[in-house]
Amino acid sequence: MPKLQGFEFWSRTLGGARHVVAPMVDQSELAWRLLSRRHGAQLCYTPMLHAQVFVRDANYRKENLYCDVCPEDRPLIVQFCANDPEVFVQAALLAQDYCDAIDLNLGCPQMIAKRGHYGAFLQEEWDLLQRMILLAHERLSVPVTCKIRVFPEIDKTVRYAQMLEKAGCQLLTVHGRTKEQKGPMAGTASWEHIKAVRKAVGIPVFANGNIQCLQDVERCIQDTGVQGVMSAEGNLHNPALFEGRSPAVWELAEEYLDIVRQHPCPLSYVRAHLFKLWHHTLQVHQQLREELAKVKTLEGVAAVSQALKLRCQEDMSRQQEGVRPADNLPAFHWICQPYIRPGPREGSKENSGGRSKRALEEEEGSMEGLSKNKLKKQLRNPHKTFDPSLKPKYAKCDQCGNPKGNRCVFNLCRGCCKKRAFRETADCPGHGLLFKTKLEKSLAWKGTQPGLQEAQQVRPVTPSGFSEVVGSALA
Ligand SMILES: Cc1cc2nc3c(=O)[nH]c(=O)nc-3n(C[C@H](O)[C@H](O)[C@H](O)COP(=O)(O)O)c2cc1C
Fold first, then answer.
1. What is the 421 CA–ligand 1 centroid distance (Å)?
2. Looking at the predicted complex, does its ipTM rise above 0.90?
3. Residue 284 lies in domain
4. Residue 76: beta bridge partners?
C-alpha cells in the first residue's frame, strides 16, 4: 500500500486525532500513554529517543521500544533527536515497524541538546534539516513528522514550516514558544505564530503550549485552525484533561500504578509522575512528599498512595461548605488540576517555602543565597563552590558527542568505549573494561589444560573468537 501523506495520513492512520499526548523524556512511557489513552488521548508520542544510541545499542532499542509493544498503544509516533541524515534514517528504519510515524525533535531547548547539537539548536540549519527530512521521506515506509519551536518573527516561523513541508514533512507540531522560552522564562505560547503556520502549509498541524483543560483545547482549535492539540505539563497534572474531567488525585494514581504493575517502568518515572499528579496535595502534606522521595519499591509507592488517599479523604470530610480552595487554586488540592509554573521573580507560597527541586535548580544561576540542599552540602564540604563558571565542563566523546568518561583511555563515552575495547580486545581501566586482561587470563588457563591446547592450535583465537570467552561481559 502506498504511504499515506499529509491530511490523508492524519485522518486515516491517526484517526483524525485531536487530543495528543506530547513526547516527554522519562514521562511519556508506555504505562502513562495507556493511562492517558483510557482518558481521552487519541494519539501519543514516545519520549525522545537518541537516534545514534538507538542504532548502535540493541538493549536501548529493546528497553525503549521493542519491549513496549502493546496493541492498545496505537496510533503511536516515535520521536528521535538526530543531526545526521544517515543516522536518523537508520534509527527510523529500525523503529518504523513499531509505530505509525517517525518524528524529528526540533524543539528541545535544554543544555543537553545544545551540547549534543540537536533539537531547537538545529533551528538555523535549514540545509541539514532539508536533507534529513528528504532522506527520511524517501526511505521510510511510514511518514516523517517534525516538532518545532517558533522563531520570534512570525514570517520566519512560517518560512521554516514551509521549508520542512517542502522537504517531505507530513505533519507539523508547533510549540508556540521560542528556544529561549524555557524554565522560569517559559511564559505563554504564541497561538498567533501557530495560526500563521497553519494558514501557510498544506499539511496537518498540531498546536502545543498553554493547554491546561478541555476548554483550552476547543479554544485553541477555534483560534488557530489546527487539526489537533498536544499537551505535556497539562497532561502530567491531569491525565483526564482530554475527557474534560478533573478526578481525585488518588484515583488516577491508583489506576496508573495498576498499569505499571502490568507494564513496568523505572521507579524514577513513577515517582516523577506522582510528584506532578499530587503536586498540590504534597504542598499540604509535606511528610508524604518526603516519603515518596524515599521509597524504593513500587509497593512502597502504593503504600504512600494509600496514605495520601486517606489524608485527602479526611480533608474532604472536614471541608466546610462555602469555603474556597486555598492559594487561589481553581479546585481543592485533592482534585487533579493544572499547575501554573511561577515566573522568574513571581512571589508565591512556593517561592517562600517547599519549592520543587526543579524550580530550585532552574533558578540556581540567579540566586544570591544558596538553597537548603546546597547549604547542607557546603556544611559537609566547606571548600565546595557552586559558582557555575567553575563547574568542570563536560568533555565530549570523540564518536557520539555524549559526555566522555573522565579516565577513558580512548576519550570515549562508556557505550562507544565498550564497543571499541571489545573490537580491539583492549582494556580501559577508566571504564572498568578488561577485555585484554580477561583474554590473557583465559589463554593462560587454557594453556594449563592439555586437552584444550590441541583445540587451540586448530582454532586460533581472534577478537571474534574472543567473543565466546567474554561474550557475557557484553550482555
Ligand atoms: C517532563 C517533560 C519532558 C519532555 N520531553 C520532551 C521530549 O522528549 N521531546 C519533545 O519534543 N518535547 C519534550 N518536552 C516538551 C513538551 O513536549 C512540550 O513541547 C512542552 O512541555 C510544552 O507543552 P505544554 O505547555 O503542554 O507543557 C518535555 C516536556 C516535559 C514537561
1. 37
2. yes
3. 249-336
4. 44
Please indicate, yes or no, if residue 390 is contained in any of the structural domains: no
Pair (197, 263) in one structural domain: no
- Looking at the fold, whether 121 and 224 belong to one and the same domain comes out as yes
Residue 129 has pLDDT above 80, yes or no: yes
In a domain, 235, yes or no: yes
Overall number of domains in the chain: 3
Is 369 contained in some domain? Answer: no
123, 233: one domain: yes
From 19, 20, 21, 24, mutation site for ligand 1 pocket: most ligand atoms within 8 A of C-beta: 24
Instruction: Identify whether residues 323 and 238 lie together within a single domain.
Output: no
pLDDT for the residue numbered 362: 37
Task: Tell me the C-alpha distance between 385 and 134, whole Å.
Answer: 48
In terms of domains, do 424 and 325 share one? Answer: no
* Number of CB atoms found within 10 A of residue 78's CB: 25
Domain boundary among 210, 243, 276: 243
H-run or E-run covering 440: helix 435-447
Residues at the binding site are 23-25, 79, 147, 175, 208-210, 232-233
For residue 405, is it within any domain? no
The verdict on 21 and 67 lying in the same domain is yes
At 387 the pLDDT is 66
Distances (CA, A) of 65 to 59, 77, 92: 10, 11, 12
- Pick the atom of ligand 1 nearest to 209's CA: 25
* Ligand 1 pocket residue status of 25, Cβ below 6 Å: yes
Indicate whether 64 and 213 sit together in one domain. yes
CATH number of the domain within which 111 lies: 3.20.20.70
Binding residue numbers for FMN? 23-25, 79, 147, 175, 208-210, 232-233
Q: How many CB atoms lie within 10 A of CB 401?
A: 16
Pocket lining: 179 vs ligand 1, CB cutoff 6 Å = no
| Number of Cβ within a 10 Å radius of residue 243 | 15
pLDDT, residue 467, reads 39
Reported confidence tier of residue 325, pLDDT bands at 50, 70, 90: confident
Cα 217 to Cα 94, 223, 228, 241, 336: the distances in Å are: 34, 10, 8, 9, 17
- In this structure, of 75-84, 177-186, 208-217, 369-378, the range with the lowest mean pLDDT score is 369-378
Which of 320, 336, 352 terminates a domain? The answer is: 336
Q: Which of 238, 270, 235, 261 minimizes the C-alpha distance to 251?
A: 238
pLDDT band at 464 (very low <50, low <70, confident <90, very high): very low
Is the distance from the beta carbon of residue 50 to the nearest atom of ligand 1 less than 6 Å? no
Q: Which atom of ligand 1 is nearest the CA belonging to 105?
A: 11
Pick from 473, 475, 415, 408: which is nearest to 439 by CA? 473
pLDDT of residue 350: 42
